[in-house]
Write a structure and sequence with these properties.
127 residues, mainly alpha, flat, LrgA/CidA, membrane, transmembrane helix, Holin-like protein CidA
Amino acid sequence: MLQTFAILLVFQSVGEVISYALHLPVPGPVLGMIMLFGWLVFDDRLLPIIQGTTSELLKHLSLLFVPAGVGIMVHANRIEGEWMPILIALVVSTWLAIATTAVVTRMLMRKPKEPAAQAADHSGEQA
């Protein structure tokens, strides 16, 4: 367990250093997780070491939503005063995410022309 936390902390720290040194708008922990993912893609020797502990952490991931819930309760008056912009932002961002997903899915689902049909098209152009 401690070894897993040490590995995660090393990746997070390296991500923080890179983010700070290059003035990137991406948080260090995000860069660290991207680097850990890349490491595991190319060399999976760390996987057996971290798999057990990370699986247990993921089981309790919902605990990370407690601070957000507390923040909502603490700032309920402010949210009450600014509910309309919040609602508009939620609706518009949700709509844009759904529309973008639909467009990308549609583009990916287009069938390419059959090789025989492409050959026929090219032979007709040459004549």
